[in-house]
């Protein structure tokens, strides 16, 4: 099927043209309307494989992901500034229009993490690409991982200064959330301290950059540590980069989850391989990631919310015998 013959693709391309012609991507009536239309266009489950689209649409998708990333960053700065004007910013998080989505995504990620981190609650967690409104870290630290410390990494000093202002007045989170202004590619030995590393969807907005970051984690994360990444599936791949299992060299892919509701991102969890002299990363690179099947070698359905229709699962869960 040609690119022009797919109605969904044509609709996305039309929206891309309109978004490209905006004078600014800062929150406004027109910006909000167009991105809302884009999200609703891409949200329904569809069998579309964006990697098989023609070169013209592939280029549009790449540009659209960057536009979405820029708009998302400006939206977060806008609301982080508003929240920072309150005496207790964390009491007003619900003014952010996608707050409920982050509550659902964080619950999803916590439940997925709990399936593969059963022995101990992680003590130190890194979130890479936390931004000016680090809602995932805040929700996980407040609601789910209430004794863990969170080290948030962002390359933008403005983003971190705004994020710090949100949690500084909270007596608990101000002691458990730390913010580092640096390029994660410059962080080496410190990565070994974390039992879990989260990678934000918009860190590495094209395949090459994303793989470069993942390879860096494979080199420096502690053996056995968990990596949680956000990906996209179907038409949602017009909004966010896709992480394939084959991108995770040096990691054992544990599970991949594709939500079908308003939570846009898919969630991938992988474990850093134990490193030995006879099974080095260089040797693994020829094999690619290993996905451990269940004892019956079947895909298992797993619903992190414990109710139907919320998740379309692709869960290849590690079975410990």
UniProtKB/TrEMBL annotation:
EC class name: transferase
Recorded catalytic activity of this chain's protein: 3 S-adenosyl-L-methionine = nicotianamine + 3 S-methyl-5'-thioadenosine + 3 H(+)
UniProt family annotation: Belongs to the nicotianamine synthase (NAS)-like family.
Name of the protein described by the UniProt record: Nicotianamine synthase
Entry's Gene Ontology molecular function annotations: nicotianamine synthase activity
InterPro entries per record: Nicotian_synth, SAM-dependent_MTases_sf
Biological process (GO), any one: nicotianamine biosynthetic process
EC numbers for this chain: 2.5.1.43
Membrane spanning residue stretches: none
A Pfam cross-reference name: NAS
Swiss-Prot/TrEMBL keywords: S-adenosyl-L-methionine, Transferase
Domain of life, source organism: Eukaryota
Functional note: Synthesizes nicotianamine, a polyamine which serves as a sensor for the physiological iron status within the plant, and/or might be involved in the transport of iron.
PROSITE patterns per record: NAS (PS51142)
């Amino acid at each position: 099927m040609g690119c022009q013959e797919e109605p969904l693709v044509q609709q996305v391309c039309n929206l891309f043209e309109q978004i490209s012609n905006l004078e600014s991507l800062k929150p406004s009536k027109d910006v909000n309307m167009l991105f809302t239309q884009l999200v609703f266009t891409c949200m329904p489950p569809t069998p579309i494989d964006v990697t098989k689209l023609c070169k013209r649409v592939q280029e549009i998708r790449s540009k659209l992901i960057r536009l979405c990333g820029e708009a998302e960053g400006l939206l977060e700065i806008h609301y982080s500034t508003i929240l920072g004007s309150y005496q207790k910013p964390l009491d007003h998080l619900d003014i952010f229009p996608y707050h409920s989505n982050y509550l659902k995504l964080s619950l999803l990620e916590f439940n997925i993490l709990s399936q593969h981190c059963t022995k101990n609650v992680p003590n130190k967690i890194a979130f890479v690409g936390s931004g000016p409104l680090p809602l995932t870290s805040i929700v996980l630290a407040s609601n789910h991982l209430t004794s863990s410390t969170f080290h948030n990494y962002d390359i933008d000093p403005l983003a971190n200064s705004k994020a710090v202002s949100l949690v500084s007045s909270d007596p608990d989170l101000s002691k458990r959330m730390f913010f580092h202004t640096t390029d994660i590619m410059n962080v080496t030995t410190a990565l070994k301290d974390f039992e879990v590393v989260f990678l934000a969807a918009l860190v590495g907005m094209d395949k090459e950059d994303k793989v470069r970051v993942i390879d860096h984690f494979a080199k420096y994360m502690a053996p056995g540590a968990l990596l949680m990444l956000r990906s996209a599936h179907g038409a949602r791949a017009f909004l966010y980069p896709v992480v394939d299992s084959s991108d995770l060299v040096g990691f054992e892919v544990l599970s991949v989850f594709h939500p079908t509701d308003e939570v846009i991102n898919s969630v991938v969890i992988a474990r850093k391989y134990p490193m030995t002299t006879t099974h080095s990363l260089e040797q693994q690179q020829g094999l690619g990631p290993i996905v451990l099947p269940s004892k019956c070698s079947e895909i298992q359905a797993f619903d992190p919310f414990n109710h139907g229709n919320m998740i379309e699962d692709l869960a290849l869960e590690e079975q410990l015998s």
